[in-house]
Amino acid sequence: MRVIIIDNTLHYLRESLANTSEQDMTKQLIEKLQTTEFSDEEEFVKSLDEEEIAYLDSVVEKELNYARNANDEVRAGQLLEVYEQLF
Question: CA torsion 3→14→51→44, rounded to 10°?
Fold first, then answer.
């Protein structure tokens, strides 16, 4: 199996998705992150369909709020980079 190097922003996104890993869409997105080499969050978001974007929007928004409430500015900043690419 090939190891995919993932940038920091996508690493934080994958960690956030892991918090909801029981969902089929989460599994689909994690699989995409693990099997495709994306140079950055913009390239990843461009690979998503409308359903994936809608789902990711809700997950990232919740995780972003959690990071802000926990005063985790690094995590919040990384997730904000993904969130901004969704629109």
Answer: -60
The 10 Å CB-count burial string (b at 16+, else e) for 49-79 is: eeebeebbeebbeebbeebeeeeeeebbebb
Is residue 6 within 8 Å of residue 38, measured between CB atoms? yes
4 — pLDDT class (breaks 50, 70, 90): low
CA separation (Å) from 16 to 12, 36, 52, 54, 76? 6, 18, 15, 16, 11
Measured between alpha carbons, how far apart are the two ends of the chain, in Å? 33
DSSP 48: -
DSSP reduced 3-state for 4? coil
Q: What is the pTM assigned to this prediction?
A: 0.84
> Using an 8 Å Cβ cutoff, are 75 and 48 in contact?
no
